[in-house]
Amino acid sequence: MNCTYLSYFINNDTPQYGGDKAIDIQQRSSISKGDSSNSTLLHLPNHVGTHIDFPKHFGDQGKTINDYDAGFWEFTQPFLLDYQADAEEVIDLAVQLESIPKNTDFLLIRTGFKRFRGQEKYWNNNPGLAPELAERLRIHCPKLKAVGFDFISLSGYQNRMLGREAHREFLNKNDILIIEDMDLQHLPESIVKVMALPLMIDQVDGCPITVIAWHE
After folding, report:
1. Per the domain annotation, does 22 fall within a domain?
2. Residues 76-91, mean pLDDT to the nearest whole number
3. What is the per-residue DSSP string for 126-187?
4. Which of 59, 81, 150, 214 would bridge with 184, disulfide CB 3.0–4.6 Å?
5. For residue 129, what are the β-bridge partners?
6. What pLDDT does 137 receive?
7. Is residue 168 pLDDT above 90, yes or no?
8. Is residue 34 part of a domain?
9. Residues in CB range of 214: below 8 A, 6 or more apart
């Protein structure tokens, strides 16, 4: 059995939705400069890099990280769907839905858009998911807990109003968590299990998350 990280390392060059520049990671102390130890100061938004959205992100009464027990984060029926998405496309998976196993608990959508990471196109012209896809997935995959993908946000930056509606449909109406900006490039289809471990910040509406896949 092999393991693969599905999360990116966060650094000062991590792309941010809308082209934001809110990350500032600095060396706080350094042995080479005479300090007793090395330490780092982190200043970053909670929705940055490979991260998860909780229902509170788009609803004041929505669930936060505190509402999920430790066992929730083990996914034993993950499924990887390859779908080549165009820039600014609103993905509805109307044709592909039936190819997704009904017992799927974590749907991974690999669009190939990762190839633009580091370019303005990655955050300015990203695809997004259609609002109606949330209910379709909930009906087709009743055990689905989360959906993740290899583009920066469920909201296409050029379709932001539609993206906000899509967030509410997934998070608040259909109870499907969202993991954005994943690294799926080298993931084989033979996935056996996925673990997703969010950063433990009390009552947070979203946070960076480390995702690891086990595969043959």
Report:
1. no
2. 98
3. --EE-HHHHHHHHHH-TT--EEEESSS-SS-GGGHHHHHHHHIIIIIIS--EEEES---TT-
4. 150
5. 91
6. 98
7. yes
8. no
9. 1, 2, 3, 191, 192, 193, 194, 195
Q: Is 110 domain-assigned? A: yes
SS (H, E, C) 18-76: HHCCCCEEEEEECHHHCCCCCEEEEECCCCCCCEEECHHHHCCCCCCHHHCCHHHHEEC
Phi, psi dihedrals of residue 92, rounded to the nearest 5°: -115, -10
Contact indicator for 99, 133 with CB cutoff of 8 Å: no
- DSSP conformation class of 202: T
User: Which token pair is 120?
Assistant: 């303005």
Residue 165 maps to which CATH number? 3.50.30.50
The pTM for the full model equals 0.97
Domain that holds residue 167: 2-7+45-215
Answer whether residue 35 is part of any domain: no
**Phi and psi (nearest 5°) for 43?**
-130, 110
- Residue listed under structure tokens 């092999």: 2
pLDDT at 125 over 90: yes
In this prediction, residue 68 carries a pLDDT of 98
End-to-end CA distance of the chain: 5
Q: Report, as an integer, the average pLDDT of 11-27.
A: 97
Domains contained in the chain, number: 1
